[in-house]
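Before the break, one more example. Copy the sequence into your notebook; we will annotate it together after we see the structure.
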Amino acid sequence: MRLYAGSSEEFISDSVHNRIADRLRTAYFGAYRREAAPSEVSSWRNSLRALSLVFQNGGFREHGVLLEYELPLTSKRLDCMITGRDNLLKDQAVVIELKQWEKCEEGDADCVVTFMGGNNRDVLHPSVQVRQYRRYLADFQPAFYEGENPIGLTACAYLHNYTPDNEDPLFAPRYESYVKECPCFTGDDVERLTDFLRKTIVRGDGQEVLSRVLDGKFRPSKKLLEHIGGLLEGKPEYVLLDEQLVAYERVLAAAREGHEHRKKAVILIRGGPGTGKSVIALNLMAQLSRDGLNAHYVTGSRAFTATLRKIVGEAAAQQCHNFSSYMQADPNWVDVMVCDEAHRMWEKSRSRQHKATGKLQIEELFDASKVLVFFIDDRQTVRPDEVGTAQYVLDFAGRSHCQTYDYRLEAQFRCAGSAGFVSWIENTLEIERTANILWNTNDKFEFKIVDSPEAIDAAIRTKIATGDTARLVAGFCWEWSDPLADGSLIEDVVIGNFRRSWNAKSGKGRLKRGIPREALWAYDPRGVDQIGCVYTAQGFEFDYVGVIVGPDLVYRPGKGWVGQRENSFDTVVKRAKGDFSSLVKNTYRVLFSRAMKGCYVYFVDKETETFFRSRMERAPKEYPEPTDQGGCLAAEP
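Here is what the structure looks like once it is written out:
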């Protein structure tokens, strides 16, 4: 998706006549169904005017210009890409990151400190940020790596308001390699920036290269679990972007300080579904292990931990544990403890092997490790005995007098990069009021309501047959039986003529050949024959997910969402004191957000289905603009 695509002449004309910001604002509303923030519109107006003067100065003619181009499968957008050809007539593109900064200070690792949003903040150095964008495109957009003539790709940053001092922090020695790879130009560097662009894109291309970029059918993002083994063996990591890399670098810095100076630190990283929490966690495990540190990957999900251990093999499996594994640990035994899915922490540990310590589970974790990293989503708490909220961690860290860092992840790397989908689900379930009231069915993320459980099962199997990963999940509204004596499973989920079994229940005897264990249901291809619940799906991602919404949560006009305990078979949740419906809402939020490309839903309760359908619209894919200058503003996937 992009907000603007056209020729360099069109872009210059739109900027000179002060149309560019309004055109982007119109396209933004068409794409996202909400207004762009005034600060973003102002940024477009100022930065793009400055960039258009560079293009004018350079005499760029018949080049392609792409503005606000969304990176595939993320919600991050490139500021600008200009396309053309070099002296050998090879297709080329340059990514340009625009900044309105006036000053900055040196920060930790790859970061600088600058004034943003009313405060001084750690942000990536502009050369590092645009370098990551270039690497991401080179990995996921086939136009840049496939075929006999892949498009050459370079990148730079332009800080048009920045006037550097002598020995300015922006060009400190620690950033030298990044600036050399992806140059950083300031307000006085118009000629240098022009020369840089001229050397790369010598001549125009009549927008042919631009068309190659726009027509490229990007490949799906790398699957998390399929690449864990490679990550831990030192193979190339996932590319981390923006705030992901900021948080990653902070952990590495704290880990080294804690190891060298015995300085205990806590890093809290908050983020909703699909913001890349586990991607950061796995990259950390890879780098910390290569650094020779004793790093442990710890989760609150038995299924995720078991799957992780199976994939990485016996040696690396020794570094993967659950939250109850540290009841008898020596003090500061672990250099860095990476706690994924930390919202699933319990108040007290439970173990068949060890006697209770009388300590809080979080206290056991703090005692065992020098540096702790907690990845948390407060709205993924689905049981009353899960206490791992962000505030819970911050309060305990404060009482323990630890150095504390708090980061938030916003970019969406699941749901086809559609940050609006998760926001719409939260709004529709009345978890939180957001700007996403209606769902545009033309969105690149495929959300579809189906008429029968048979149809949703068929849709999931069709996706698997074409090479995608997919699973069927449901609310806990049917009994979950033990395996029979012969190891087969009872078909507990019955809806009319539709009958399926839940995933196997662990620790309940042998299983018939072909039936995966509960902990491996999400990873084993044979898991498609069973239905998973939130406890086996949480922490995993699939290309497509089918969700059966049961009668434990229904919508009633005039009353809103109503939790129906009598229709739940989750004994812990239905007996919980307090708001049953809040826990069930969180459960469905987790289930809806497991998918990378699409989510299919079947509602047992038809009034609830009607309400969901009322929150959907089929908005047009294109938003025509005045054609007097020929600008291309279609905001489409």
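The radius of gyration is 26 Å. Residues 220-229, 622-637 have pLDDT under 50 and may be disordered. Try to locate both features in your own notes.
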